[in-house]
TrEMBL record:
EC code(s) of this entry: 6.3.2.17
Cofactor: Mg(2+)
InterPro entries registered for this protein in UniProt: Folylpolyglutamate_synth, Folylpolyglutamate_synth_CS, Mur-like_cat_sf, Mur_ligase_C_dom_sf, Mur_ligase_cen
Official protein name in the record: tetrahydrofolate synthase
Assigned keywords, A-Z: ATP-binding, Ligase, Magnesium, Metal-binding, Nucleotide-binding
The Mur ligase central domain, residue ranges: 46-262
Any Gene Ontology biological process: tetrahydrofolate biosynthetic process
Presence of the UniProt keyword Glycosyltransferase in the record: no
Reactions catalysed according to its record: (6S)-5,6,7,8-tetrahydrofolyl-(gamma-L-Glu)(n) + L-glutamate + ATP = (6S)-5,6,7,8-tetrahydrofolyl-(gamma-L-Glu)(n+1) + ADP + phosphate + H(+)
Catalytic class of the enzyme: ligase
A Pfam family assignment: Mur_ligase_M
GO molecular function, one term: tetrahydrofolylpolyglutamate synthase activity
Coiled coil location: none
Length: 436
C-alpha cells in the first residue's frame, strides 16, 4: 500500500458515515489550520447535477489558453485521488498531497470529520500556498452544507442542470434538491444558471432575488447552439462564432455556453482567440470518451466502437442515449451497454432512454466500491426499463459474451461502458489511461 492510500484509509475512519452534510466540522478544522480558505485566489463556485465537471473543464481550458494559472477542485476521482486537486495546471504530486493531508490530520486530532471535509481542507491548504489567478471550485454534494461552501465571496456562482440525484441526502423532490444546490448563492454575487425545470428555476430565482445576486439565465440572457458545425454563443454583448467543444455530445454545447457566460459574469472572459483554443482542446475523461486503443479495447470484438461515460442518473441517461442515437443514425451498429452502478442511484430512470436503442445490457459489479449494486438486481432494473439484460460476475465475462454475440452476428458492435464513475475509473486504469 502506498503512503497516500494509507493516509486516506486512516482519514476514512474519522467519521462513522462517509456523507454527513454540515459546515461545523470543516469550519473548526480550517480555523485550526489558520483559515486557508481566506487566502485563496478568486473563486468560481460550481454546483449542479449534470455537467459540473465538463463546465469546469471548459472554463479551465479557456482560462489556461489565455495564459492564466488555474487551480481546480473536482470530485470524485477516476483512477487516483490526486486527480481531485489540480495546482496551477498540474495534478498534485504525492509529496505535496501527503504533506497537506498530514498537516490536516494533525490539526484535526481525534475529532470527528468526514473524508470529504478533511480532504477539502487539505486542498484549501494547497490552493492557498501555490500562487494562481483563479480557483475553479466544484461542489462535492449539494451546496448549502457542502464542505466547499465556506467561501464568502466567489466571483460567480454557477449552477448546471438540476435533476433527481442523491435523494437520500438532498431531498425527495426537485424543489428540495434545488434548495440545497442554490445554497451556494451569496449575497450580491452574480449567479449563472443553465436552463432548469420550472420547479428548480423558481427556487434559484427566489434565492437570487432574496440575496440581491444578479441572475443570468441560459435561454433568457444568453444562449449557445450548434450551426453548420460551429458553436454560436449569443449574449447581451453580441454574438461569438466559435468551434464546437472538443467534448462529444450536444449537451456539451450547453455546458460550453454556461462556461463562457460564467467567465463573462466573473469579468474574466479572455479574448476570443483564447476561447477558441480552449474549446478546441478541452478534455474531460470518461464523458462520452471514445476509446480507440489499449488492453481493454483489445478485449472487445475486432472493429468494435467503444465509448466510456461515467453518467449515472436519469438526466445523464437522456443525454448519453441521445448521443448514441445520433451515432446510430450516422453509422448503424448493434449497441451493447456494459453497466455497473451504485446502490444509491436510479437504474430504471437511467436505462429508460435506451429503450429501442440498446440491443442488450451486460450488468457487472463495481470492483472499486463496496456500495455497488448487485449485477442481478441491476439486470432486473434494466428489464423494468424494457431492455434485455444479463448479469455477469465480472467485466471480463461481459466482454466475452459480447465477443461471442458479435462473432455469431457477424457485426462489429458499438459498446457503451456506463453507469458509474467507479466503473469508468476501473476501465481507464485497465486501459492504461489514467488522467494527467
Amino acid at each position: 500500500m502506498d503512503q497516500v492510500t494509507a493516509i486516506l484509509d486512516r482519514l476514512l475512519a474519522l467519521h462513522p458515515r462517509e456523507i454527513d452534510l454540515s459546515l461545523g466540522r470543516i469550519e473548526r478544522l480550517l480555523a485550526a489550520l489558520g483559515n486557508p480558505e481566506r487566502r485563496l485566489p478568486p473563486v468560481i463556485h460550481v454546483t449542479g447535477t449534470n455537467g459540473k465537471g465538463s463546465t469546469t473543464a471548459t472554463m479551465r481550458a479557456i482560462l489556461e489558453a489565455s495564459g492564466a494559472r488555474v487551480h481546480v477542485y473536482t470530485s470524485p476521482h477516476l483512477v487516483t485521488f490526486n486527480e481531485r486537486i489540480r495546482l496551477a495546471g498540474r495534478i498534485v504530486d504525492d509529496a505535496r498531497l501527503i504533506d497537506a493531508l498530514d498537516r490536516c490530520e494533525r490539526a484535526n486530532g481525534a475529532e470527528e470529520i468526514t473524508f470529504f471535509e478533511i480532504t477539502t481542507a487539505a486542498a484549501f491548504l494547497l490552493f492557498a500556498e501555490e500562487p494562481a489567478d483563479y480557483l475553479l471550485l466544484e461542489v462535492g454534494l449539494g451546496g448549502r452544507l457542502d464542505a466547499t461552501n465556506v467561501i464568502d465571496k466567489p466571483l460567480v456562482s454557477v449552477i448546471t442542470p438540476l435533476s433527481m440525484d442523491h435523494e437520500r441526502y438532498l431531498g425527495a423532490s426537485l424543489a428540495e434538491i434545488a434548495e440545497e444546490k442554490a445554497g451556494i448563492i451569496k449575497r450580491g454575487v452574480p449567479v449563472v444558471t443553465a436552463a432548469q425545470d420550472d420547479v428548480a428555476f423558481d427556487v434559484i430565482m427566489r434565492t437570487a432575488a432574496r440575496l440581491g445576486a444578479p441572475l443570468t439565465v441560459f435561454g433568457q440572457d444568453f444562449t449557445a447552439y450548434e450551426e453548420h458545425g460551429r458553436l454560436v454563443f449569443q449574449h447581451e454583448t453580441g454574438l461569438l462564432d466559435l468551434p464546437r467543444p472538443h467534448l462529444a455530445g450536444h449537451h456539451q454545447t450547453v455546458n460550453a455556453g454556461l462556461a463562457i457566460a460564467a467567465l463573462a459574469a466573473a469579468s474574466c472572459l479572455p479574448a476570443i482567440e483564447a476561447v477558441e483554443r480552449g474549446l478546441a482542446t478541452v478534455d474531460w475523461p470518461a464523458r462520452l470518451q471514445l476509446l480507440t486503443h489499449g488492453p481493454l479495447v483489445d478485449d472487445c470484438p475486432v472493429g468494435a466502437e467503444v465509448w466510456l461515460d461515467g453518467g449515472h442518473n436519469p438526466g445523464a441517461g437522456v443525454a448519453i442515449a441521445a448521443f448514441m442515437g445520433e451515432q446510430e443514425e450516422r453509422s448503424p451498429r448493434p449497441l451493447y451497454l456494459v453497466c455497473g452502478m451504485l446502490k444509491t442511484k436510479d437504474p430504471v430512470g437511467f436505462f429508460r432512454p435506451f429503450h429501442g436503442l440498446a440491443r442488450h445490457v451486460a450488468c457487472v459489479p463495481l470492483t472499486t466500491s463496496n456500495a455497488g449494486r448487485d449485477p442481478f438486481d441491476l439486470a432486473d432494473c434494466a428489464r423494468a426499463a424494457s431492455l434485455e439484460a444479463t448479469p455477469f460476475e465480472s467485466l471480463d465475462g461481459a466482454l466475452a459474451d459480447i465477443r461471442a454475440c458479435s462473432q455469431k452476428d457477424g457485426e462489429a458492435p458499438r459498446i457503451l461502458i456506463c453507469g458509474s464513475l467507479y466503473l469508468a475509473g476501473e476501465i481507464l486504469a485497465r486501459n492504461g489511461m489514467a488522467p494527467k
